[in-house]
Structures are given as structure tokens and as C-alpha cells.
């Protein structure tokens, strides 16, 4: 099956290439990983991600050269099952969980992952967004029952100490989607959380965010989620995540975590403004989730899937290119001049998970 | 003529996305392109910018950290421009994306 080796260079987009390789069964070679850098080779979190990938698959072959600047990955089958993984503190859990969401539906056994690490930071998607928005989007593809993300402990950077549990059912095949109606935003929900600081901080964030958002709709409700004692990890911090839901259940998200020295009011207002600029971009998917939707569209049965997106992010553009390299699927992209959005259409490759018996 | 123009543009946007350019640059550029709408996508300016972009990335190792952060789907490149949301007209401009906006003018 895997006779041709796909070659990439550079350390960017490391995760997506390995995930696409795993799904497509193609061997991938990534070289020139920071070969000109003062500190060449794979970083800790990338090596950690390879370890995680090794845990969830069976029969994968990973070869790393002596200096760590080149990786050869020959994927095995996705086995899933019960896995415990420590994500370290270099990157948040979102870095590791996101690609796992893409693999989970096609596993042999349903995923039951427990991660330790940072739950909320400013680099990766926080657990709140994944739980309240990303996982809900999977419903459109027919992944519904048993999908769960539980945040049992929170961990703020730099020391982390959070714990989450992710469960995902397996499916035989996805459903194609037609998702072009943006609708209008009817409500805004959010979660303000804090660890090892005064619970009052959450209320201050909520008030600041509401002061920006209440002018549009009254239906703004932000939960305050205060973790105490053991459950609040090792570092003090607070974060706010917001989800805007439209009449056609489009979910648009924004989130921010506090950097040292920032007040809860800063975070509240900044997150609210970020949400507004995400809303302005239009489209049916918030920019952080574009890639997942596009990937699942490609993996759905041999039927036409269509989606409306706002402005594409750099991450998404590279994802489109990598999808073309791995699955040989090119999206048809049409610009809708009236609303400044893009319509992306593709025919799925008919990916089938043979491990799932017919339902 | 109008149909031809639109058909042409569709090819252009596909060329743009599946082309050779660095994705970061397209993402930054598409703001101005989609805002102005009619501007040609293959004018000379982005190419020059392209060269600059790579020079900086190669010479300055401090930039490696910025590039590093890109392996995350959460890329808010407009985080510096948030002050515009203090402006009343900008705030009103997305009113129609909410159910409270008027139904006649559906342009977001």
C-alpha cells in the first residue's frame, strides 16, 4: 500500500502531516527540521506528540535521525483504547488533543484518552472551546453518542497540572455535509474559569465581556467555573472562552487566557472583541476549526460536501495543500462576492473504518 | 463579460490557494483583497512581499519563535487591531450578523 514516500521539509505543520499520513496509510518523511537553527531538531513537544501517536497506533514505525532533524513515519493502524498521556508543559493539551479528534472516529477501539498538562493557554485551543464548540461540530458528520470531554482538573501555564478525559465513539463512515447557511447569531455562551486566584476574577471577566456584547443581544450568559484545591492545578491563572451560536447552529469561538500582569477586565474585553472580529469574518465555522471540517469532508463518502467559510487562515491554506498531497482531493473554491465568503466543495474519498461492524 | 470576470476570479483564488506562495502571506493578504473585492489577485506587490518575508525568516533567528507558534489552529493574527472595536461605526457594521439586526439589509 505504502510504496511512495511523501516528503516534506520544515518543522511547521508537523502534526497535520503525521495525522494525514496515519489516516491515508502513506509513509511520510519530514526533513530539515530546524536544521539551520541554533537548537536543531525536534522539540520536546514534537517528540512527545510522536510518542502519543505511537501509543494510539499499532505497528507504526518512527525513525528519527541522530540530530533529530529528520523523521520517517510509517503509519500502522489506529487502535485507540484506554491511554494515559502526559503532555508536558511546553504546549497545552489542545496541541495533542486536536489531532486525536481527527483520528478517533476511525480507530479500532473507541478512544478513552486521559491527558495531563495545561488546559488553558494562549497558543493552543483550550479544553473549553474543544468541549463546547469543536466536539459539537462533529455531530454534523454523524458522530454523536458517547462523545465526551471531561475536565477533571484545570491547569494554567507555566506548570499545568490539569487533567482531562476524552472519549470518542467509532464510526463506520462519516456523513457528507451541506453547510452553507450562516444564519444569524442568537445567543452567546461562555465559560470564565480561574485557578489558584480569587473567584472574584471570573465575575470581573464576565462583566467586562458583557459590557461589549450586550449591545447586540441580551442573551449572553457566561458561566463561572472556579476550581479549588487539588483540582486547580499548579499555577495561578484565569481565562475566558466565548461561543456565539447562530440560528443554524453555527458556532463561532474566541478565547483568551491571562498573561502575567493583566487584569480580568483586559481579558474580558479582549475576548469579546476577538469574538466580534471572528463574527465579522463570516462563514459557518470559526477559524480554528476550519481544518477539521475540511478533513472530515474529504473523508466522508463519495458524495459532494459543501461548506461556507470566512477568511481562510494560513493554517487552513496549508491544510488544503497537504490534503491534496495525501488524498489527492482538490477543493473547488468559489468566492461569494456578495458576502465576502468562500464556498468550498469537494467529493469525499469514501473512507471506511472496517473495524466497526455494521450497525 | 461579468460572467467571464467571475469565472476568471474563481480560477485565481484556487491558483492562489494551491499555488506556491507561503500560506501566511495569503492569509494576511486576503484581508485587503477581499475587502476591495475587485483588485487583481496577481499583481506585483505580493511577490515582493514574498521575498521580504523569506529574508527575514532566514536571517533573524528570533523569528523562529513566531513561526513556531504557527503549528496551532488558533491563530489570531488580528489581535493588535482590536482597538477598532471601540469605534461605534465598526461596532454597528456587524449588527446584521445578529438576530437583533434589521432583516432588510442582509449584508454582513
Automatic annotation (TrEMBL), chain A:
Q: Which GO terms describe its cellular component?
A: nucleolus
The main place the protein resides is: nucleus
Keywords, alphabetical: Nucleus, Ribosome biogenesis
Domain RNA 3'-terminal phosphate cyclase insert positions: 180-280
Q: Which domain of life is it from?
A: Eukaryota
State the family it belongs to: Belongs to the RNA 3'-terminal cyclase family. Type 2 subfamily.
Q: What's the protein here called?
A: Putative RNA 3'-terminal phosphate cyclase-like protein
